[in-house]
Amino acid sequence: MHCGPEGARAAMAMAEKFDSLEEHLEKFVENIRQLGIIVSDFQPSSQAGLNQKLNFMVTGLQDIDKCRQQLHDISVPLEVFEYIDQGRNPQLYTKECLERALAKNEQVKGKIDTMKLVAHKSCRKNYSTVNQVPVLGGGAIYMPNQMDTSF
């Protein structure tokens, strides 16, 4: 991912491509709506208007295809389409993915903290074991690990 001015320019260019696609799709949908009106109440006198709308439809599909070619490297997870099919907002998919990632991050952080605590306690236990001197009877006397500086 690019940061700084180059990243901002790339993001703006990508946004413009999406805006262009959105505009072409909106025009296409409106043309189809108008085509449906003409066809539903077709009169021989409306043949010229029908032909014009059909030509606009072909042109609109060509424009959409050009936009598609500019966005060929975009991939959309299949789960997003499932959200759409269920009538859910696709932005909820992103939100839920982020929430799952945050929960997993918290879980992993907890495991890391636990491992650090175990390692710390293990080191303290090993340190105190090294500094114990065995005595007769199976016990041990704690001997601090200090250098004799009384020379």
TrEMBL record:
One of its GO terms (cellular component) is mediator complex. Component of the Mediator complex. Belongs to the Mediator complex subunit 10 family. Component of the Mediator complex, a coactivator involved in the regulated transcription of nearly all RNA polymerase II-dependent genes. Mediator functions as a bridge to convey information from gene-specific regulatory proteins to the basal RNA polymerase II transcription machinery. Mediator is recruited to promoters by direct interactions with regulatory proteins and serves as a scaffold for the assembly of a functional preinitiation complex with RNA polymerase II and the general transcription factors. Coiled coil: none annotated. The keyword Nucleus applies. This is Mediator of RNA polymerase II transcription subunit 10. GO terms for biological process: regulation of transcription by RNA polymerase II. It comes from Coturnix japonica. Keywords: Activator, Nucleus, Transcription, Transcription regulation. It comes from the Eukaryota. The keyword Repeat does not apply. InterPro entries: Mediator_Med10. Pfam families: Med10 (PF09748). It is found in: Nucleus. One of its GO terms (molecular function) is transcription coregulator activity.
